[in-house]
Structure prediction request, 649 residues.
Amino acid sequence: MAASKQADAKKKKKRRKKESQQHKTRRILLALAIFAVVYAADEFGALAALFGEPGALYASFVLYLVPFVIAGHDVLQKAWNNIRHGKAFDESFLMAVATLGAFAMIFFPDTDPHMAEGAAVMLFYQVGELFQAYAVGKSRKSIADMMDIAPDYANVEREGVLTQVDPDEVNVGDFIVVKPGERVPIDGVVTQGASQLDTAALTGESVPRHVEEGADVVSGCINMTGVLHIRTTKPFGESTVSRILELVENASEKKAKTENFITRFARVYTPAVTGAAVLLALGGGLLTGAWSDWILRGLTLLVVSCPCALVISVPLSFFGGIGGASQIGVLVKGSNYLEALSEVDTVVFDKTGTLTNGTFEVVATHPADGQTEAGLLELAAHAESFSDHPIAVSVKRAYGADLNEARVVEAGEESGHGVHAKVDGREVLVGNNKLMRKHGIDAPTCDVVGTILHVAVDGAYAGHIVIADTVKDDAAQTIADLHAAGIRRCVMLTGDREEVAADVAGRLGLDECHAQLLPADKIERVEGLLASESDKRKLAFVGDGINDAPVLTRADVGIAMGAMGSDAAIEAADIVLMDDKPSNIARAMKVARKTMGIVWQNIVFALAVKLIILVLAAIGMANMWLAVFGDVGVAIIAILNAMRAMRVK
Prediction:
């Protein structure tokens, strides 16, 4: 029940946070309404009419203090707590000092009152915080939707009785039942039933996936139509849904260099501008004697110097980019990997399972004279009927019809050569050149690249079948899109034969191809490619197998196939493609580059506007209202700009 209790605790925490946010929103709206009434009464002379000229000043002080305290008491409390704990220099401290200082100006004789500006600064700062909360909530939506893929229960079938239990109580090899409308709780194999699965939450694909007996299913999908009986193949903690949730929860912990720079910058920047404001107020007051004027300049400097726009918008931009990538089925494990992806100019691919489907298929059938394609496939499929070899499976799948095993006798396998069998009383051989030579049969060569299966009947050559690992439908488009996106080199590394690798590379338009490589050779090749990269450019490696894990770790950016990829590859990778479509690499790069563009737009815009207003404040040409725009206005604009990172076409 541990998982259930943990889920309940998360729901309660989420509900409390939502209620707290709603309460804060109502509080700020109330403060804004009171401020508007007081400001109107002050501007139109109502306070002067009621209290007289001297009394109106103190009345406005008290009345402006009401919305100020309603809206900003939590900011004042946070600033005080931080001071007590020796962490004074943050935006709460700047807001508290600047706004309280504006109210304190009433005690300076011959000085215009600034209570309205003090209350406005606090109010609009809190409005900016609301914008931030809304933006963060919106950017979290796609990730929050993904967090909802966690199943609440599993229907376990034990001794003919269906029992509802927590997913983490299900063992490997147990049989579970998934009804229409329920989520698949654990990875497994369908043993009975057929249905359509909604995989949108995992892969971003809107088209349902058909599954039937023998099909692999992954946790997190929604069963749409029929009842499925599934034999589990992994414990819940190692299933797809658990891996995804772990990746998402850890994504915010790995910050980009730019994000870390902004954090360090704010730590130095805030105390520096605080000191500058104090020096400005004290220096100007001592030199001119106009203390109220120079104190006001110092307070204005504090307001405009608040680093909210940078501290909020930069992490929000990265978070939005990660959320946007998740919408297309790309999981990025941290903003540092998103930043690195934007700098990639060389992409290295594994072949099998990455650019190709990783399964053998019949790509050509060449019958000899007197034979037909259908007849050749029928003979080969029956001869292979007792074999479970992947090549045999592909031949039987290409034949397509039911096999009549009664037609086959004396079937056997000749290791490293092929199979032999009697089909309808005729001696049938299916295998490679070695098998043909062994039986004294001449076998012609074939121009089609792939594994050649020669077929002989009663000692006479009957034709050959070409079997190959087929290229993924979007593989060629992937390479074209990457080149269009400015990728300088697309390289393929494979352990396959030279001619097969060259054929795939030629069809896809790859820049380089290296074949017949062992795992250690792949690392050596990647090391060489990395050495040729400049310091500012990165190399990405895309793979799916266990043998790709070391290379994924060594590359600047490791990208793994998530649907069919091995656990080791997914664990070692920095980015995971949940639908195994390589074409999403180019889309993910566009998201990364767009995100980095937004990050730098916000940095340049915020610093430029603040610098201008800081100079104006120092020479006395900027008032509190302009400072409000320099802080809250810039922050809101930066936040709205950051939200664009979530929009992925």
